[in-house]
């Protein structure tokens, strides 16, 4: 009888250890937020994409907000009928394409914006560009990266394109440049984007790989190469370009003007 109890004791202990391990494993996985929002390029940096962040912050996209300041890009402004001496850093017609997530959840809030007497504008740090430039989420998402960055962490980068699209990641890179460069509200008419040249300019990450961030080289881990063989839904069709107008000094999305519908925690592209 003693041996029977002893056997049951071992079985119970094994079961407890197994359940405890399962709970720990589940606890290690972060919960995906219920709604998407923009989080900024510095969140993408951290312990995940530092070489890419370093490459980006020295690129034209990493300095896009600065072009809105008086005196900058004077020739381009003159050519297209803009005042080169005017400060456009609070102009809603410019902010959608010169910042990240403007007028959307978690996105950029221009300088001087107050709510109930409190300054709620986005903090700007020239040494660590974030929402105030054209960051990762403007090209890689439709509604911000709060959800899919958790999916990436939980899967350790081993995910399918279609799965991440449910959380707002986009793969239509040949179309995404038109989100701004080809937009009908773009005052710089006739702009054409050479995608391959643009990507080389924005993502020359190899020169920023160091001993400290070498483990973040997502090209070297092989998963990127495998995913290149897949076709995500957005890649097949191309996501709708946002349609908006300026009304009473504010940017308003027109009816049906967003690129997605949102239902029960998932994103559905139009």
TrEMBL record:
InterPro entries from the UniProt entry: Cyt_c-552/4, Multihaem_cyt_sf
Cytochrome c-552/4 domain mapped to chain residues: 47-141
Pfam families noted in UniProt: Cytochrome_C554 (PF13435)
Tree of life domain: Bacteria
Entry keyword set: Signal
Segment forming the signal sequence: 1-27
Coiled coil: none
Name of protein: Putative Cytochrome c-554 (Modular protein)
Taxonomic classification: Bacteria, Pseudomonadati, Nitrospinota/Tectimicrobiota group, Nitrospinota, Nitrospinia
